[in-house]
Amino acid sequence: MNLRIAGVSTLALFSTAAIAQAPQKTIPGYTETAPPYATESVVNHPVTIGWPEGRTPTAPRGWDVVKFAGGLDYPRQALLLPNGDVLVSEARTLPKLDAEPDVARGQALSKTTGYSANRITLLRDTNRDGIAEQRFVLRDKLNQPFGMQYANGRLYVANTDAVISFPYQPGQTSIAAPPRTHATLPAGGYNNHWTRNLLLSPDGRTLYVSVGSASNVGEYGMDEEKRRAAILAIDLSTGRERIYASGLRNPVGMDFVPGTSTLWTAVNERDQIGDDIAPDYLVGVREGGFYGWPYSYFGKQDPRHANEKRELLATTLLPDVAVGAHAAALGIAFAKQGVPTAFVARHGSWNRSSFSGYDVLAVPFADGRPTGDPQPFLTGFVADAKKGTVHGRPASVQTRADGAIFVVDDAGDTVWLVRRRS
User: Fold this and answer.
1) What confidence tens digit (pLDDT) does each residue in 37-89 have?
2) What number of other Cβ atoms are within 10 A of residue 343's Cβ?
3) Which CATH architecture best describes the domain 10-420?
4) What mean pLDDT do residues 303-315 have?
5) Which has the least CB within 10 A, 61, 210, 222, 369?
6) Are 329 and 346 in contact (CB under 8 A)?
7) Which residue(s) pair with 329 in the sheet?
8) Alpha carbon of 122 to those of 170, 314, 408: distances in Å?
């Protein structure tokens, strides 16, 4: 396993371990991996069995885990509103008619594909006990909604093919107004990279949009990748769009370290060259930066592009934290209180012989930079690794000003609230 967290006690949550030297810089969580094709590429989807009554994920000592809301339909992202309401987007990957039989069967068992609710649900905890007693369909008939942001009386929503917004005030329980379209987005593509996440700049002027690649490693040609494998930036006052950063295969989670203007993202790396290649990662994104996809990973040339764009290696930027190969790091959120920490939701592997991910990690930070290796924070999602079963799969995280953490568990149809024990 590339990410060295096995056997680490959660009591040592923020300890710093020795780290290996990667090309050009030291990267927490990174160890030198086997060469490409050292292990066979496999299809190893989990079987989702759900959560038994009363069972929850496991948090470190001193934390409680509460089922904030269950019975959702594949929730993906949460948005915490100023009045305490929580919005949740519900959407699922659409089945591919041309998928290989074992891939299609695996996706069905893992609940990743099928009917998509295509809605945003509002969850309200009326008595502030950590359980949402009320829920409302805020808006339906969307097109695979994922990311959401709220500012200046408008709710911004990232459908798979467009960024739209609605007039909205916290407290409303439904939206009937027609949407305004801010940008059309490229849709479709390999490996279910349909998710589009959103993040507002601290000054509220720029809306960042994450767009995953249309392929694994550009096998359909780079013309298919225009405005993809990138983070786009939309100026909300003028509507102008620019590519903020590129070469990011599938950036999904995005957040700012509180008090800074550096955008951090969690990125899913490439498949089909071995169990431990290439690690997913976190990176503090530089505007205009190029991060290697599809030509290289962690400063190494991808053998499928061995003789292409080698000159880019000299200017390719490296990740800041490695979080495990094929672990599907989909979410990132920084603590707004207490020890500076990035919480990372790892949805879990399908292209690895043994499971990787299916948890939430904690990465220690100081002065806006990572200071040590990722450590386990929220575990217990795997039911039986030998049988290949899981209770659920963390898809995203959000943090609240009081230190609480919301974990969206899509396969478990649940939103968990993790909070310090009083």
Assistant:
1) 999 999 999 999 999 999 999 999 999 999 999 999 999 999 999 999 999 99
2) 25
3) 6 Propeller (2.120)
4) 91
5) 61
6) yes
7) 346
8) 10, 47, 14
